[in-house]
Structure formats: C-alpha cells, structure tokens
Write a structure and sequence with these properties.
The structure is a single chain. This protein has a domain of about 40 residues. It is mainly alpha-helical. The mean pLDDT is about 90. It is built from 4 helices and no strands.
C-alpha cells in the first residue's frame, strides 16, 4: 500500500466506527461522561480486533512480525 492508500484506509475504517457510535448515541446513558464513553469505544474496537486475522493466529509469522514492527517503530 502506498502512503496515500494507507491514509485512505485509516479514514474509511475509523469512519465506520464513528458512524456506528454516533448512530447509538441515543442509547448511551445520560450520566456517562468521558470515562464511560472512552471505555465503550475501546471495548468495541477491541472486540472487533479479535476478529482480525492477526489476532486469530497470535503465534503466526505475520503476528510476530506485526508485534516486532510495532515495537521497533514505536507505534
């Protein structure tokens, strides 16, 4: 992927989450503030991450390379 393609992927991917969260805003308890909302956002994204290939095969070659890339690149 080119850098432009990566940026577009990130924008499109995160937009799906934003749209989902905004569509559910009327269901969010009125007393929730930033702490609960951050936790809800993180839990939802984390649940989705579990469905991804790297998470399904955490001992695989691609997963090892991914973790190494994260550490080396300080992401």
């Amino acid at each position: 992927m080119t850098k432009a393609e990566k940026k577009l992927f990130i924008k499109n991917f995160t937009k799906t989450f934003v749209d989902e969260f905004i569509s559910k805003i009327d269901k969010v308890p009125e007393d929730w503030d930033g702490i609960e909302i951050r936790t809800w956002l993180a839990d939802t994204v984390s649940d989705e991450a579990r469905r991804w290939e790297i998470k399904q095969n955490p001992k695989g070659k691609r997963a090892r390379k991914y973790r190494n890339d994260i550490a080396i690149s300080e992401l």
